[in-house]
Amino acid sequence: MRVAIPHSLGKDEVRRRMQEKAGKASAKASDMLGSLASVDMTWRDEDHLAMDVSAMGFTVPCAVTLEEAELVIDVTMPDGLGFARRMIEGVIREKGEKLLA
Predict the structure, then answer these.
(1) pLDDT tens for each residue of 38-48
(2) Are 73 and 64 in contact (CB under 8 A)?
(3) Which of the 8 DSSP states describes residue 23?
């Protein structure tokens, strides 16, 4: 699944915001869900972030690409989570738009 979130901030500002908030998001997920969920993030280069979100026995790999006019999130949905696709897409869009606001 691919979710593209348009913005007019430019890559540098999006990168700054993501780097500032990435650690906070991971810590917040751990605080809220304890050992039930985890978020592992690795910057591949200045425009590409790899994320693995694990919860309820599933790991959802995500690739985030910073582009000049949009933030693109590619999500590899595990077979057992097809029923939650719309919900996951909605959460990604909501959180991404909040980050870029």
Answers:
(1) 888 899 999 99
(2) yes
(3) H
Q: Are 90 and 12 in contact (CB under 8 A)?
A: no
Phi, psi of 75 (to 5 degrees): -120, 130
Beta pairing partners, 42: 50
Query: DSSP characters for 29-95?
Result: HHHHHGGGEEEEEEEEETTEEEEEEEETTEEEEEEEEE-SSEEEEEE---GGGGGGHHHHHHHHHHH
Q: Return phi, psi of residue 3, to 5°.
A: -120, 120
Q: Higher model confidence: residue 22 or residue 5? A: 5
For range 63-81, the mean pLDDT: 93
Range of weakest confidence among 19-33, 35-49, 67-81: 19-33
